Every structure is written in structure tokens, then in C-alpha cells.
Write the C-alpha cells for this entry.
Amino acid sequence: MNKKLITYLLILLPIVVFYVFVFQNAFNIGWNDDWHGIEGFLASWMQQVTVSDKITLLFSQMCEHRILYVRLSTLLSYHLFGEVNYKTMMLMGVAYLLILPFVFYRVLREINVKLAYLIPIIFIIFNTQPIENIFWAITSLQPNTVIIFGLWGFSLLLFYQKKWAFYLANFLFFLAMFTNGNGMFAFIAAIPLIFYARTRSEKFQFLGILVFCFFLYFFDFKKPGIRPDVMINFTKYPHIILGDFFAFFGSPIDSTVQFYSINLKYTVAITAGVLMILWVVYQLFTFFYFWLKIKKQSISLEKTSILYQNIVKYPKFNLYLFASFVFVGLSGAAFAASRASQGLEQAFVSRYKTVSLILFIIIYLSVFNFIERKKWDKYLKISVIITILFSAFSYYESWDDVENRRKFFGTTILNWKNNGRYFYYAFANSRNPDDHAPISQYQKLPIPPYNYAGFVHGVMKYVNDILWISRVHFKNYTPPAEIDVLNKALYENQVIGSAEEDVKFIEGSNFFRIEITKAFVPFNTRFDGYYAIFTNKNNRLAFPLETQANKFSTFLSTQRFYNTRIDTIIAKPDLPIGEFKMQIGKLQDNQFKVIKEQIIKIQ
């Protein structure tokens, strides 16, 4: 087959497969921050009368961020579709990934290589590990796009000398900063590029823009109530900060795809992160070592290392890599410093993995400084094989998450529709009547900054207010039709199931524990699987009983790709007070097969 045709296929195939995967699995259901960050914003926007109040709302805080770009995207979606459409907004977020191949191809042109050298980058960019991007609209438009705006801006500053490129780059840095907090590091990382590639006038303009943006961001800035003081993290959890930093960058190499061992998971990720960071630091150290040696001892270039000679030979190529590393490095450091008290598991949260994956690309590109040019083709072939395997690994890892998130988000909206309220186990006093009582009259939402609405006292009432105002009063959200199909299947299409599964039900002081053995979840089904549903005269609530899948170690022990045992806990505060008929069963082919039924009381 023609080499050029193979190159185009290997570039286009992962992109097409990625967007088919996203389109099939993303659906018009919001989650968590979407409610106050998107629906809450839109409902509040409709209530503001003056232009001043609307601008204040656009730039107001949400947690430690100012999410101007998310809010503008929300308004665009609303005016295009007449409602919030979460699937469209998620697609908007991942669509920006299409910018990065053009950016990195321009970077590769600096070392004069063929288009084929872009293939490994494509397989890393269009990766499913940041799976929350297709289930959480605000995540797709926030931590995902901020990194893209920064990387695009570096390319404009370095490779295009026109005035429009300078101003567009600064606009992108502004958008990055007012999309997610770490976007401010784009301005910091761009400073070496400004000094190297831009005119004296542009240097002064950049300084003015930088000062203005930082002033605007921190003007009237309020510390979010949920976040611990960063200095406390430094004094109490310095070891976790360090572990978080390295695990953050090594997290895409997640050993739990095969083995359920937390210690192994942390060890593998931290080790991978350490090796990658050390590799980049080694190159920086080599450069500065020989640069100082040449400056002080006036040695010739030939007496330096091959690595240093290549760095000097391709200055723009390496300056771009340096700026990108500073950007992602500071982003990882800020993450580690702010999340240390929440433990190492935070480093594996999928919404942050777009940042981690960029370091993989930096590593791939930086190796060209180390190896001889005659070996570049061999390095390319090895890189293509590794990244194809990594891509397959990522799809394999993500599939489980996709299936379980479909069920969880579907039942979340189903429960809201059935009960006119949202139930969420957040804190000890979440059973307060004020938190769970559905509202019945119009109320005006405040203009943020919120004290991070998702976690403060009274959040249940606040979220209920948002959902009622935005969905009932303004009627700006229509749940997917499949939610009605799920509702009918669970509550109307009930049959007595076979006795294949064994169910064990244990009641604790504040929870129910459900164990199912001899279980089996069909492959590639949207909502099929095991559920526990609770019904009485006033309420109907459904909870999916998750099962882990796609583990090769599980297959070796059971000869099934899906576990044969489910062990799930349902918190009692997820249910209102009263007597319920609990039914545990399996949903398959639009029928709910009841395998256990029992009366329970919530007090």
C-alpha cells in the first residue's frame, strides 16, 4: 500500500473513531457543576435586568475559577437550541482538540520531518481517558479547552510574526485564564517566547495585557469555602503534594485496568511521572550547563553534547516545548498544592488527564533532540506502535466507565423527574427538611460568586431551586427521550426474574449493602444491568448497581469479561423518610426482572 495513503489513514482513523465514540456515548444529561455552573448561570442571567449586572455575572467566580468561556458557550447553546443542550456543549469542548494537530504539525516543521511524524501525537490527543469530557459539559468546556487555548497561543507567538498573531495569542491566553484558573500560567509560560520572538513594542504591550488580566481576575476574588488553605497543605501534606504531582502526570498509565491494587496503581503512576519529569529536567539542565560553560569558558559548540547541539539547532522547536512544559508543569503543581488534603486518588480524576497527556507529547517530541537523525524513522515506527497500543489500552480502560456513567446519569435525571427533587449524599445533615423539600414557587437566584454551591450547607435546596427555576419556570431543558424509556422499563415492564443470581441484602445504621453473585451484565448496552428501585405512594427512586468490566485478570479467573459479583452500598440519606418497597433486579431488553423484593423503612 502507498506510504502516503497509510499516513493519512493513521492520522484520520483515530480522529474518526474518537468522534464516533464521543457522539454515540455523550448524551443530553448534565451533572454536578453543570447545574449551578450552566443551568444556574442561565437562570440567573434571565433574571438580571441591567447590562452591568449581566457583565458582573459573566465574570463572577465559580469556586476558584472565573468561567467566562463556559458561560458564553452556554448562551450560544441556548440561543441556538432554545434550551441547554449538554451533548452539544460536550461536543463543542472536544471539537477544540482538532486544533492541536495543526499546532503540533507546525512545531514538527521546525525539525523538517514528514507528516507521518504527527501520527503518534494524533493517537495521544484523541484519547478517551479524559472520559468525563463526554459526560460532564462544564469539564469539556473548562479544563479541557484551557490547555488547548494556551498551546495554540504559544504557536502563534513563536511561528507567526504578524501583528494579528500576537493579538490573537493574547486573546487566547485571556480566554484560557477566564476558562479555568490554571489558564493564567499560559501568560507566565509565554514570557520566554515574547522575549525571543516578539518586537520591543509587543513586549511592553504583553506586560500591560498580563497585568490587566491578573488584576481583573483577582479583583474582588473570594477564597472558596470548600477549598482548604494551600499553606495548610504545604505544612500538613507535603508528601501528598509531591506524590500528587508525579501521579498526576503518570495517571494515564493506570494499572487498575488489569489489577485492583491501589498500591500498585499509585506506584506505577508516580514512577511514570517521576521518569517523565526527570527526562525533561535533564534536558533543561544539559542546556543551561553547556550554555553557561560556553559563556564563561568560551568552549566551541563541538565540545558540547549532541543533546545541547540539537537544542541550539532547533531553537523555536525547543522553546515551544519549554513553554508547553512550563504550562503543564505549573498546572500540575497547582493541582497538587490545592488537592493534597483530598488524597492521591484525586490525581487519577479523568477530567485532568488532558493536561497529563500533553506531557506525553512533550516527551515524544523532546526525544528528537537526543537521537541521531538517521535513526528518526526507526524511532517513529516504535512510537507509532506504542501509541496505537496506548490508544487501545485507553478505550479498553474507558469502556467500563462509559457503561456505568450512562446508568448513573440516566437514573439521576429519572429520579429528578419522578420526585421533583434531587437526592445526593453529601454530608451528615443533608436530611434536613429544608434540603430535601421541593420548591413550589418562583425564587430569584443570587449573582455569584457562590461559595461553591455544590458543597456548602443548604446545597440540596440550592440545587433544587436551580433545577426548578431553570427547568420548570424557564423550561430550558428537555431530558433525552431514552429517560422515559428507562422509566417505563423499570417501573412498568416488570416480571419475576429467574433464580440464576444470588442476592444478599445487609442493612447498616446509615446504609444498605447489596451483594449479588452469579451476576452478568451484557456487553455494549446503554442501560441494561442491575438496579435497586424504591417505591411508595410519593416517591420512585432508582439506583444502578455498578459492576466492573473489561479486566483481563477477571477474565482469567472467571472466563467472563464482566465480574460475576456485585458489591454495592446505597446510603440511606439518598432516600427520603418513609416506608418503601425495595426491588432488586436486572434490566434487560426493556424488561426489569425482579430477583429480590422487600419492605424497608427509612427513619
